[in-house]
């Protein structure tokens, strides 16, 4: 069994437990699941780095093989050109010499020199051909070996990613059902409470987001406005940048994850809709829809994820 595969199986046993007769599956705590998830994500990162390193080696091997092919092509062209030159020169000399040619030491020396050059080029041609053959064989062997190794790494990465998805599902199952949910799925009205002036459902949603994600910027919920859920204490803005600037790629990915998580767990938490990057997802009418341009990064929700609650 591959070392990582054994590790993945061990991690599975650690996270999900091993059921025995007469015993219910243990319910892991949020902290233990998050710790295991962090470890697996690091393992996947190492696998991806290993996978990419092998791809780089494979590219280098193919480049070396192509360079050998190019050298052979040049050697073949040089040899053919010299061969034609010597043959053409010898043919002209034969035609011009007549039946009783007078020895021409200069011409003979030139022919001899060209023959020597031809021999040298032939030798170089043979060397280039041998080098190319060796390089091609070595590159093919390396290519086959790297493909096999890359396939193993890819399989291991997929195993770890599947386990990560399972752990994330387990974490999602730990998200509690918010108060006020009626049997038919609708939500009873709530009044804002506490110093934050937000409803209990909004407080629970904000707490759960903070528990599940590494938020780097402030979260704003209640504020006095003429419309929307903010003045009702039923909305929060999770900032992904500051100063009205566009988020970095890392923070944009975090915003994507927060928005997806809110949608996935919306039926338990009482999420009404999510706005992110000038698009709105209404849980009553699933699907992202583009919003009108409001004229700025913040106004168009490019720098924060907005979550409104029932």
Automatic annotation (TrEMBL):
Keywords: Coiled coil, Signal
Signal peptide stretch: 1-21
Coiled coil, from the record: 30-85, 125-173
Domain ARB-07466-like C-terminal: 195-302
Gene3D superfamilies: 1.10.287.1490
InterPro entries given in the database record: ARB_07466-like_C
Keyword Signal: yes
Record has Plastid as a keyword: no
Pfam families referenced in this protein's UniProt entry, alphabetically: VldE
Protein name (database record): ARB-07466-like C-terminal domain-containing protein
